[in-house]
Amino acid sequence: MNPVHPTLARPIKRYTYIDNGPEIYVESFATIRRESDLTRIPADAEKLAVRMIHGTGQTDLAADLVIHPQLVTRAREALKSGASILCDAFMVSTGVTASRLPAANDVHCFLRDQRVPTLAAEWRTTRTAAAVSLWEPHLAGSVVAIGNAPTALFHLLEMLIDGAPRPAAIIGCPVGFIGADESKVALANLAADHGIDIPYVTVRGRRGGSAMTSSAINALATEDE
Q1: Which of 18, 129, 181, 193 has its CA 20 to 30 A from that of 164?
Q2: pLDDT tens digits for 21-76?
Q3: Which parts of the chain register pLDDT below 50?
Q4: Residue 123: CATH number of its domain
Q5: Own/partner long-range contacts of 38-43 (Cβ < 8 Å, ≥24 apart)
Q6: CB 71, CB 77: distance < 8 Å
Q7: By the 8 A CB rule, do 219 and 48 touch?
Q8: Which distant-in-sequence residues (6+ apart) come within 8 Å of 175 by Cβ?
Q9: What backbone phi and psi angles, to 5 degrees, belong to 200?
Q10: How many CB atoms lie within 10 A of CB 39?
Q11: Burial class of residue 69 in the structure, from the number of CB atoms within 10 Å of its CB (0-12 exposed, 13-18 middle, 19+ buried)
Q12: How many helices (H) and strands (E) does the chain have?
């Protein structure tokens, strides 16, 4: 019997599996390094790639990652200096591990702001995209994390082209079948097409998501694995 909860008892262990938390953690990252080809990943971004793979369970993810050469340096500098983290969805913001943040950084998602439905209706866009406009007072020097909505990434890029304050770094990994790949191509081409060079990480194709994006933030927040 459990001395703290006398009515609870662990069921009989009938399967062979690792159930020690620290051991699972160590073995997970060891498995990723054994099974993933990280040779094309910049040296300072290896832990970033490993965490993104860990967040998705996809060891082939490394081949599709596109990482700006200054992404890790700029994002870590920004976070250490107290930069805000701006998220397109609550699933991204709740995936950020507060204990890893170097400066008790604020993590924002404005989807529930009362202004969002009206803006979305007036602009004929998604609520997630409309919420991005509410980032503007926080954008300068921030770290952006977009993991769900391609419309949010497109909206951000359009704001930047129109002259909005520039974030320090963008994690742009929206998932989906409509606009996801195209929005990430637009992010990767932002400097070439519009002369706006902001460090970023993205993933080619339709893959992406909240877990991948929050995992990237957690990797950039500290050098510890």
Answers
A1: 181
A2: 999 999 999 999 999 999 999 999 999 999 999 999 999 999 999 999 999 999 99
A3: 1
A4: 3.40.50.10230
A5: 38/62, 41/65, 41/67, 42/67, 42/69, 42/72
A6: no
A7: yes
A8: 147, 148, 206, 207, 208, 209, 212
A9: -155, 165
A10: 6
A11: exposed
A12: 11, 6
For the annotated catalytic residues, the residue numbers are 54
Q: Show the domain range for 42.
A: 21-221
- 124-to-130, 148, 160 alpha-carbon distances in Å: 9, 19, 20
Residue 160 makes CB contacts below 8 A (sequence gap 6+) with 166, 190, 194, 196, 198
In this predicted structure, what is the pLDDT of residue 191?
Answer: 98
Cα 171 vs. chain centroid, distance in angstroms? Answer: 5
What residues does 170 pair with on adjacent strands? 144, 200
Q: Which residues contact 140 (CB under 8 A, 6 or more apart)?
A: 165, 166, 167
**Half-sphere exposure of residue 196: CA atoms within 13 angstroms, side-chain side:** 23
Q: Is there a domain that residue 16 lies in?
A: no
For the whole model, what pTM was predicted?
Answer: 0.94
- Residue 219 near residue 64, CB atoms below 8 Å: no
Tally the domains of the chain: 1
Question: Would you say residue 30 lies in a domain?
Answer: yes
By three-state DSSP, how is residue 127 classified?
A: helix
- 109 burial class (0-12, 13-18, 19+ CB within 10 angstroms)? buried
Q: Which residue has the tokens 């927040």?
A: 221
5, part of any domain: no
> Does the residue 104 lie in any domain?
yes
